[in-house]
Design brief:
The protein has 385 residues and is α/β, with parallel strands linked by helices. It folds into 2 domains: 244 residues, Rossmann fold; 119 residues, no CATH class. Helices cover 33% and strands 21% of the residues. The protein has a 7-stranded mixed β-sheet with strand order 3-2-1-4-5-7-6, sandwiched between helices. It has a 4-stranded antiparallel β-sheet with strand order 11-10-12-13. It is globular.
Length: 385
Protein backbone atom coordinates (compact mmCIF):
# COMPACT_ATOMS: atom_id res chain seq x y z
CA UNK A 1 0.00 0.00 0.00
CA UNK A 2 1.53 3.39 -0.98
CA UNK A 3 2.19 5.86 1.81
CA UNK A 4 2.03 9.64 2.11
CA UNK A 5 2.58 12.70 4.27
CA UNK A 6 0.06 15.52 3.95
CA UNK A 7 1.36 18.97 4.89
CA UNK A 8 -1.02 21.97 5.19
CA UNK A 9 -3.64 19.24 5.46
CA UNK A 10 -6.68 21.35 6.34
CA UNK A 11 -9.64 19.00 6.54
CA UNK A 12 -7.82 16.16 4.80
CA UNK A 13 -9.12 16.57 1.26
CA UNK A 14 -5.93 15.16 -0.24
CA UNK A 15 -6.41 12.11 1.97
CA UNK A 16 -9.98 11.83 0.70
CA UNK A 17 -8.76 12.06 -2.90
CA UNK A 18 -5.99 9.50 -2.56
CA UNK A 19 -8.52 7.09 -1.11
CA UNK A 20 -8.47 4.02 1.14
CA UNK A 21 -5.74 2.25 -0.84
CA UNK A 22 -3.21 4.81 0.41
CA UNK A 23 -1.83 4.87 3.95
CA UNK A 24 -1.37 8.22 5.71
CA UNK A 25 1.77 8.26 7.87
CA UNK A 26 1.65 11.92 8.88
CA UNK A 27 -0.63 14.96 8.56
CA UNK A 28 0.04 18.50 9.66
CA UNK A 29 -1.70 21.85 9.95
CA UNK A 30 -1.24 24.82 12.25
CA UNK A 31 -4.92 25.94 12.30
CA UNK A 32 -6.71 24.39 15.30
CA UNK A 33 -10.15 24.74 13.70
CA UNK A 34 -9.08 22.88 10.56
CA UNK A 35 -7.24 20.33 12.67
CA UNK A 36 -10.44 19.67 14.60
CA UNK A 37 -12.24 18.86 11.33
CA UNK A 38 -9.38 16.60 10.31
CA UNK A 39 -9.59 14.82 13.65
CA UNK A 40 -13.36 14.32 13.44
CA UNK A 41 -13.13 12.83 9.96
CA UNK A 42 -9.84 10.91 10.03
CA UNK A 43 -8.86 10.52 13.67
CA UNK A 44 -5.90 11.93 15.54
CA UNK A 45 -3.32 9.16 15.07
CA UNK A 46 -1.36 10.79 12.23
CA UNK A 47 -2.21 14.44 12.92
CA UNK A 48 0.22 16.98 14.35
CA UNK A 49 -1.14 20.45 15.13
CA UNK A 50 1.97 22.55 14.70
CA UNK A 51 3.58 25.25 12.57
CA UNK A 52 5.57 23.54 9.82
CA UNK A 53 8.64 25.47 10.97
CA UNK A 54 8.55 23.35 14.13
CA UNK A 55 8.10 19.95 12.49
CA UNK A 56 11.16 17.72 12.85
CA UNK A 57 12.28 14.37 11.52
CA UNK A 58 11.20 12.64 14.71
CA UNK A 59 7.61 13.68 13.96
CA UNK A 60 7.63 11.94 10.58
CA UNK A 61 6.89 8.23 10.80
CA UNK A 62 8.27 5.72 8.30
CA UNK A 63 9.06 6.57 4.69
CA UNK A 64 6.47 8.20 2.46
CA UNK A 65 6.11 7.46 -1.24
CA UNK A 66 4.41 10.84 -1.64
CA UNK A 67 4.84 14.12 0.20
CA UNK A 68 2.00 16.52 -0.60
CA UNK A 69 2.06 20.21 0.24
CA UNK A 70 -0.82 22.60 -0.50
CA UNK A 71 1.02 25.56 0.97
CA UNK A 72 -0.93 28.80 1.62
CA UNK A 73 -1.92 30.78 -1.46
CA UNK A 74 -2.72 34.20 -0.02
CA UNK A 75 0.58 35.84 -0.97
CA UNK A 76 0.54 34.29 -4.48
CA UNK A 77 -3.09 34.91 -5.34
CA UNK A 78 -4.04 37.69 -7.72
CA UNK A 79 -6.42 38.86 -4.99
CA UNK A 80 -3.68 38.77 -2.35
CA UNK A 81 -1.10 41.28 -1.20
CA UNK A 82 1.54 40.39 -3.79
CA UNK A 83 4.19 39.37 -1.26
CA UNK A 84 4.75 36.07 -3.08
CA UNK A 85 7.17 33.57 -1.54
CA UNK A 86 8.54 36.38 0.62
CA UNK A 87 5.18 36.56 2.39
CA UNK A 88 4.61 35.12 5.85
CA UNK A 89 2.01 32.62 4.63
CA UNK A 90 3.12 31.47 1.17
CA UNK A 91 6.69 31.69 2.43
CA UNK A 92 6.05 28.49 4.39
CA UNK A 93 7.09 26.80 1.14
CA UNK A 94 10.70 27.10 2.29
CA UNK A 95 10.29 25.27 5.63
CA UNK A 96 8.46 22.60 3.62
CA UNK A 97 11.46 22.24 1.29
CA UNK A 98 13.82 22.16 4.26
CA UNK A 99 11.81 19.23 5.66
CA UNK A 100 12.26 17.37 2.37
CA UNK A 101 16.00 18.05 2.52
CA UNK A 102 16.12 16.52 5.99
CA UNK A 103 14.24 13.45 4.79
CA UNK A 104 16.68 13.00 1.92
CA UNK A 105 19.66 13.33 4.27
CA UNK A 106 18.02 10.70 6.50
CA UNK A 107 17.81 8.33 3.50
CA UNK A 108 14.02 8.73 3.37
CA UNK A 109 13.61 10.56 0.09
CA UNK A 110 10.00 10.36 -1.15
CA UNK A 111 9.38 9.11 -4.67
CA UNK A 112 7.02 12.04 -5.32
CA UNK A 113 6.65 15.60 -4.12
CA UNK A 114 3.38 17.29 -5.06
CA UNK A 115 2.65 20.99 -4.63
CA UNK A 116 -0.73 22.61 -5.18
CA UNK A 117 -1.50 26.30 -5.37
CA UNK A 118 -3.34 29.00 -7.31
CA UNK A 119 -2.49 29.59 -10.97
CA UNK A 120 -1.31 33.07 -10.00
CA UNK A 121 1.84 31.30 -8.82
CA UNK A 122 2.91 31.14 -12.48
CA UNK A 123 3.01 34.92 -12.83
CA UNK A 124 3.69 36.07 -9.26
CA UNK A 125 6.57 38.57 -9.29
CA UNK A 126 6.76 38.25 -13.07
CA UNK A 127 7.33 34.51 -12.83
CA UNK A 128 10.15 34.70 -10.27
CA UNK A 129 8.23 32.77 -7.61
CA UNK A 130 7.47 29.86 -9.94
CA UNK A 131 11.11 29.75 -11.01
CA UNK A 132 12.15 29.67 -7.34
CA UNK A 133 9.80 26.75 -6.64
CA UNK A 134 11.16 24.78 -9.59
CA UNK A 135 14.78 25.56 -8.68
CA UNK A 136 14.23 24.34 -5.12
CA UNK A 137 12.85 21.03 -6.39
CA UNK A 138 15.53 20.59 -9.08
CA UNK A 139 18.18 21.19 -6.41
CA UNK A 140 16.79 18.21 -4.50
CA UNK A 141 17.73 16.04 -7.51
CA UNK A 142 14.17 15.58 -8.72
CA UNK A 143 12.70 15.87 -12.18
CA UNK A 144 9.41 17.68 -12.37
CA UNK A 145 6.52 18.85 -14.45
CA UNK A 146 3.36 20.80 -13.80
CA UNK A 147 -0.32 20.70 -14.65
CA UNK A 148 -3.11 23.25 -14.58
CA UNK A 149 -6.28 21.38 -13.69
CA UNK A 150 -9.69 23.00 -13.37
CA UNK A 151 -12.06 21.24 -10.96
CA UNK A 152 -14.82 22.09 -13.47
CA UNK A 153 -13.72 19.00 -15.39
CA UNK A 154 -15.08 16.91 -12.51
CA UNK A 155 -17.36 19.16 -10.44
CA UNK A 156 -19.67 22.12 -11.14
CA UNK A 157 -17.13 24.64 -9.82
CA UNK A 158 -14.66 26.82 -11.70
CA UNK A 159 -11.45 26.16 -9.78
CA UNK A 160 -8.24 26.11 -11.86
CA UNK A 161 -5.20 25.17 -9.80
CA UNK A 162 -1.51 24.60 -10.43
CA UNK A 163 -0.07 21.19 -9.54
CA UNK A 164 3.69 20.76 -9.58
CA UNK A 165 4.59 17.05 -9.61
CA UNK A 166 8.22 16.18 -8.88
CA UNK A 167 9.54 12.62 -9.18
CA UNK A 168 12.77 11.24 -7.72
CA UNK A 169 15.45 10.44 -10.30
CA UNK A 170 15.44 6.75 -9.28
CA UNK A 171 11.68 6.31 -9.73
CA UNK A 172 10.81 4.64 -13.06
CA UNK A 173 8.20 6.42 -15.17
CA UNK A 174 6.14 4.39 -17.65
CA UNK A 175 6.72 5.72 -21.17
CA UNK A 176 3.07 6.53 -21.66
CA UNK A 177 3.13 9.13 -18.90
CA UNK A 178 5.56 11.44 -20.69
CA UNK A 179 4.98 13.47 -23.83
CA UNK A 180 7.40 15.53 -25.89
CA UNK A 181 5.67 18.88 -25.67
CA UNK A 182 2.92 20.77 -23.88
CA UNK A 183 -0.67 20.26 -24.94
CA UNK A 184 -4.18 21.23 -23.92
CA UNK A 185 -6.00 20.90 -21.63
CA UNK A 186 -3.47 20.27 -18.84
CA UNK A 187 -0.71 22.62 -19.98
CA UNK A 188 -2.00 26.18 -20.18
CA UNK A 189 -0.36 29.00 -22.12
CA UNK A 190 0.67 30.59 -18.83
CA UNK A 191 2.39 27.35 -17.81
CA UNK A 192 4.18 27.12 -21.15
CA UNK A 193 5.38 30.72 -20.77
CA UNK A 194 6.63 29.94 -17.26
CA UNK A 195 8.44 26.87 -18.58
CA UNK A 196 10.18 28.95 -21.28
CA UNK A 197 11.67 31.18 -18.55
CA UNK A 198 13.49 28.26 -16.89
CA UNK A 199 17.18 27.64 -17.48
CA UNK A 200 18.32 25.21 -20.17
CA UNK A 201 19.37 22.69 -17.50
CA UNK A 202 15.99 22.92 -15.81
CA UNK A 203 14.10 22.58 -19.08
CA UNK A 204 16.17 19.45 -19.81
CA UNK A 205 14.92 17.91 -16.56
CA UNK A 206 11.31 18.96 -17.12
CA UNK A 207 8.52 16.44 -17.68
CA UNK A 208 5.45 17.17 -19.74
CA UNK A 209 3.10 14.80 -17.93
CA UNK A 210 0.68 13.01 -20.22
CA UNK A 211 -2.81 12.59 -18.80
CA UNK A 212 -5.94 11.43 -20.60
CA UNK A 213 -8.92 13.69 -21.07
CA UNK A 214 -11.28 13.77 -18.13
CA UNK A 215 -14.49 11.77 -18.44
CA UNK A 216 -17.69 13.73 -18.93
CA UNK A 217 -18.74 15.43 -15.70
CA UNK A 218 -21.59 13.55 -14.02
CA UNK A 219 -22.74 16.24 -11.58
CA UNK A 220 -24.79 19.32 -12.47
CA UNK A 221 -24.93 22.45 -10.33
CA UNK A 222 -28.64 21.90 -9.74
CA UNK A 223 -27.83 18.48 -8.27
CA UNK A 224 -26.04 19.96 -5.28
CA UNK A 225 -28.56 22.67 -4.34
CA UNK A 226 -30.60 22.05 -1.19
CA UNK A 227 -34.26 23.02 -0.95
CA UNK A 228 -34.08 23.04 2.84
CA UNK A 229 -30.51 23.92 3.87
CA UNK A 230 -29.62 23.72 7.55
CA UNK A 231 -26.75 26.19 7.66
CA UNK A 232 -28.42 29.16 5.91
CA UNK A 233 -31.88 30.58 5.32
CA UNK A 234 -33.56 31.70 2.13
CA UNK A 235 -33.70 35.46 1.74
CA UNK A 236 -36.89 37.38 2.24
CA UNK A 237 -38.57 38.80 -0.87
CA UNK A 238 -37.19 42.20 0.10
CA UNK A 239 -33.63 40.88 0.34
CA UNK A 240 -33.91 39.18 -3.05
CA UNK A 241 -35.22 42.40 -4.58
CA UNK A 242 -32.28 44.29 -3.08
CA UNK A 243 -29.90 41.75 -4.59
CA UNK A 244 -31.50 42.16 -8.01
CA UNK A 245 -31.16 45.93 -7.68
CA UNK A 246 -27.38 45.47 -7.45
CA UNK A 247 -27.22 43.86 -10.90
CA UNK A 248 -26.17 45.58 -14.08
CA UNK A 249 -28.35 45.48 -17.18
CA UNK A 250 -26.28 42.59 -18.52
CA UNK A 251 -26.85 40.52 -15.40
CA UNK A 252 -30.53 41.42 -15.17
CA UNK A 253 -30.88 40.20 -18.76
CA UNK A 254 -29.47 36.83 -17.65
CA UNK A 255 -32.10 36.66 -14.91
CA UNK A 256 -34.85 37.51 -17.40
CA UNK A 257 -33.66 34.79 -19.77
CA UNK A 258 -33.73 32.32 -16.88
CA UNK A 259 -37.28 33.38 -16.00
CA UNK A 260 -38.41 32.60 -19.53
CA UNK A 261 -36.86 29.15 -19.49
CA UNK A 262 -39.30 26.31 -19.04
CA UNK A 263 -37.25 24.64 -16.36
CA UNK A 264 -35.75 25.29 -12.94
CA UNK A 265 -32.67 27.49 -13.33
CA UNK A 266 -29.89 27.72 -10.77
CA UNK A 267 -27.37 30.54 -10.81
CA UNK A 268 -24.54 31.59 -8.51
CA UNK A 269 -23.63 35.13 -7.54
CA UNK A 270 -20.59 36.97 -6.29
CA UNK A 271 -20.69 40.60 -5.18
CA UNK A 272 -17.85 42.53 -6.77
CA UNK A 273 -16.76 46.15 -6.68
CA UNK A 274 -16.67 47.70 -10.14
CA UNK A 275 -15.68 51.15 -11.30
CA UNK A 276 -18.41 52.81 -13.35
CA UNK A 277 -18.12 56.37 -14.61
CA UNK A 278 -15.23 56.90 -12.21
CA UNK A 279 -17.19 55.69 -9.18
CA UNK A 280 -16.81 52.40 -7.30
CA UNK A 281 -20.08 50.46 -7.31
CA UNK A 282 -20.84 47.10 -5.71
CA UNK A 283 -22.46 44.78 -8.23
CA UNK A 284 -24.08 41.37 -7.95
CA UNK A 285 -22.83 39.29 -10.87
CA UNK A 286 -24.68 36.10 -11.75
CA UNK A 287 -23.85 33.12 -13.95
CA UNK A 288 -26.16 30.40 -15.33
CA UNK A 289 -23.56 28.21 -17.04
CA UNK A 290 -24.05 25.22 -14.71
CA UNK A 291 -20.78 26.03 -12.95
CA UNK A 292 -20.37 27.82 -9.63
CA UNK A 293 -17.70 30.43 -9.18
CA UNK A 294 -14.51 29.45 -7.42
CA UNK A 295 -15.02 29.03 -3.67
CA UNK A 296 -12.91 31.43 -1.64
CA UNK A 297 -12.22 31.78 2.04
CA UNK A 298 -14.81 34.19 3.52
CA UNK A 299 -12.85 37.23 4.61
CA UNK A 300 -16.02 39.27 4.23
CA UNK A 301 -19.57 39.16 2.91
CA UNK A 302 -18.50 39.81 -0.68
CA UNK A 303 -16.36 36.66 -0.80
CA UNK A 304 -19.23 34.35 0.10
CA UNK A 305 -21.05 32.97 -2.91
CA UNK A 306 -24.82 33.24 -3.23
CA UNK A 307 -27.35 31.01 -4.93
CA UNK A 308 -30.36 32.14 -6.98
CA UNK A 309 -33.05 29.66 -7.99
CA UNK A 310 -35.55 30.74 -10.64
CA UNK A 311 -38.71 28.86 -11.56
CA UNK A 312 -40.77 31.05 -13.87
CA UNK A 313 -41.83 34.15 -11.97
CA UNK A 314 -40.61 32.73 -8.65
CA UNK A 315 -37.12 33.91 -7.68
CA UNK A 316 -35.38 32.86 -4.48
CA UNK A 317 -31.89 33.68 -3.23
CA UNK A 318 -29.60 32.94 -0.28
CA UNK A 319 -26.02 32.26 0.69
CA UNK A 320 -24.59 28.96 -0.54
CA UNK A 321 -24.91 26.42 2.25
CA UNK A 322 -21.90 24.78 3.87
CA UNK A 323 -22.98 21.33 2.62
CA UNK A 324 -23.24 22.70 -0.92
CA UNK A 325 -19.68 24.01 -0.70
CA UNK A 326 -18.54 20.55 0.44
CA UNK A 327 -20.26 18.98 -2.56
CA UNK A 328 -18.54 21.48 -4.85
CA UNK A 329 -15.22 20.16 -3.48
CA UNK A 330 -16.21 16.54 -4.08
CA UNK A 331 -16.48 15.62 -0.40
CA UNK A 332 -18.89 12.78 0.46
CA UNK A 333 -22.16 13.39 2.29
CA UNK A 334 -20.68 11.59 5.29
CA UNK A 335 -17.93 14.19 5.68
CA UNK A 336 -18.40 16.02 8.99
CA UNK A 337 -18.43 19.79 8.61
CA UNK A 338 -17.97 22.39 11.35
CA UNK A 339 -21.25 23.61 12.79
CA UNK A 340 -20.34 27.28 12.36
CA UNK A 341 -21.07 28.48 8.84
CA UNK A 342 -18.00 30.66 8.25
CA UNK A 343 -15.72 27.98 9.67
CA UNK A 344 -17.17 25.34 7.33
CA UNK A 345 -16.97 27.72 4.35
CA UNK A 346 -13.36 28.55 5.19
CA UNK A 347 -12.48 24.86 5.43
CA UNK A 348 -13.92 23.97 2.03
CA UNK A 349 -12.93 27.19 0.26
CA UNK A 350 -9.31 26.64 1.26
CA UNK A 351 -9.14 22.99 0.23
CA UNK A 352 -8.18 20.82 -2.73
CA UNK A 353 -10.90 19.37 -4.97
CA UNK A 354 -11.10 15.69 -4.10
CA UNK A 355 -11.63 14.21 -7.60
CA UNK A 356 -8.67 16.21 -8.96
CA UNK A 357 -6.38 14.53 -6.43
CA UNK A 358 -7.84 11.15 -7.37
CA UNK A 359 -7.30 11.86 -11.08
CA UNK A 360 -3.63 12.75 -10.58
CA UNK A 361 -3.08 9.77 -8.29
CA UNK A 362 -4.74 7.39 -10.76
CA UNK A 363 -2.81 8.61 -13.78
CA UNK A 364 0.61 9.55 -12.37
CA UNK A 365 1.41 8.36 -8.86
CA UNK A 366 -0.11 4.90 -8.97
CA UNK A 367 1.24 3.80 -12.38
CA UNK A 368 4.76 4.90 -11.39
CA UNK A 369 4.59 3.21 -8.00
CA UNK A 370 3.25 0.04 -9.58
CA UNK A 371 6.12 0.05 -12.07
CA UNK A 372 8.64 0.62 -9.28
CA UNK A 373 7.17 -2.24 -7.26
CA UNK A 374 7.32 -4.58 -10.24
CA UNK A 375 10.96 -3.70 -10.96
CA UNK A 376 11.87 -4.17 -7.30
CA UNK A 377 10.33 -7.66 -7.25
CA UNK A 378 12.17 -8.54 -10.47
CA UNK A 379 15.49 -7.36 -9.02
CA UNK A 380 14.88 -9.35 -5.84
CA UNK A 381 14.05 -12.47 -7.85
CA UNK A 382 17.23 -12.10 -9.94
CA UNK A 383 19.28 -11.71 -6.75
CA UNK A 384 17.90 -14.96 -5.28
CA UNK A 385 18.74 -16.98 -8.38
Amino acid sequence: MPTFYEFFAGGGMVRAGLGPNWSCLFANDFDPKKAQSYLENWGADELLLEDIRNVGLDDLAGQADLVWGSFPCQDLSLAGNGAGLRGNRSGTFYPFINTIKELIADDRAPRFIALENVVGTLTSHKGADFKAICKALFNLDYKLGALVVDAANFLPQSRPRLFVIAVHKNTPIPAGLIQKAASAPWHSKALQTAFDSLSARERANWIWWHLPSAAARQMDLADIIEDHPESVKWHSARETTALLSMMSEVNLAKVETARNAKTRMVGTIYKRTRREHGIKVQRAEIRFDDIAGCLRTPAGGSSRQLVMVIEGSKIRSRLMSSRETARLMGLPETYKLPERYNQAYHLTGDGVAVPVVRFIAQHIFEPCLSRASTEARTDESDTLR
